[in-house]
Amino acid sequence: MSEEHQASCLVKMNDKLPAFELPDVSDESKSLEKLLGKKLTVVVFWSTGNRYAMDQFKRIWHELGDYVDDGV
Length: 72
Description:
By secondary structure, the chain is α+β, with helices and mostly antiparallel strands.
């Protein structure tokens, strides 16, 4: 991640996320607590207008794809 991109992040790795609601893939609002798994949960904030979004998904899949069967 570039220094410019890192500087734009409001929540960084290992930060505790505040309580809030997010839309799921069906566009239904869910509390973050209900979306968290029992194992590692990856939360990605993105928008279609973010130039980094697609690169971020490709990188995450490459880095975490091997762990999907382990419950990530």
